[in-house]
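fyi for ur records
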Amino acid sequence: MDEYVKLYWIDTPYKFENKWVIDAYFKSNTTVEKIMLDWASTHFLAFGRYYSNGNLNSVQNNKNELVIDLNLNNIDFRLTQDYLNINSKEIRTDIFVGYKNGKEYRIPALEIIRAVIATNRFLLNRIVELDSLTKYFVFRFDKDRNLYIDFFDEYERKLLESSYIKHLAWIITNENILKMFNQIGKNIWLCGNISYDFLFENLQIKARIHEEKNIIRIFEIIEVKNKIINAKEIYISSKYINKLNISNHPKSRRYKNLNITDDKTLDSKIDGAKNQQSDFIDTLNTKHSYINNIKINGKKKNIRPLRIKEDENTNVYEIENNNLRTSADIGGIYRLKGIEYKNIENISVKGELQEFIEIMKLLQKKKKLTIYKL
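which gave:
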């Protein structure tokens, strides 16, 4: 039977053995347990959710909680510090409190970071550093208010997806949002707590809440609506964006994956097969929508020739399939090479291994090898 525990609170991030971690407190029927988690695990966590058997992606909600749309514009939110008594220890809480139409709204400061500002692992890891964004890109505006972002080599290819670019543009084209981003990392380093100003000019959300009398507690922000990117268009440049020039010359070589010929080859289609982070588990990603539909343009700086034709001089090489399931399920460090479990007669390799394969075939034909002792 599944055992569910409720996420009670998350403490301020801190450094442990040269990495950022958090202490998450889970409440069962009898006690509250503290578990140290990686700071990047914050995206799996939402206050008031029930987690099963230690699986951060197996969650349930309290049936008494509501999901409603909230317009938090023109509310003066102030950061309030309080303390929870957990297992005879006082744990600091950082909550934004604001009032509107006789209602009191309470939002955990960490939920704003998780769901609104640092919406992916890259930003979550950068937000606990000082002036870290300048290590990955520079940006500028032209006279027509077009935004130009030039990414350095350290900025990964997967972060060039439009959703990531739009959110990044939302941060850097809104001065107050960028100020909040920088405040968070600075105060964690200097003060050891989550402390920043609530500077949103427009914050409309859909949230999972608990309402009691005139107090609305926001446990989880599910959607951030009507965001505005203050730019006409976005132009990005990266080493991963190249201009392709179609060439009339035929390919000199072509690569293909080794064929699967027997039942001893590990199946690359079953669970856990690929060595990609997104294949393992889904986070509690918050939906973000924008008022203005900004066009993203890729600035093609490097010209790379692309050969699409083949002829009789095109060499074909068989290579291992990098998506094959790992033989020990250890994250892709040791991969199935494709040669260990194949019949030697079925292997055709050109290049440095060709002579080795021929020797192996000759040795296989010998009925018995004589070993001489020196």
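Residues 259-282, 321-341 have pLDDT under 50 and may be disordered. thats all i got for now
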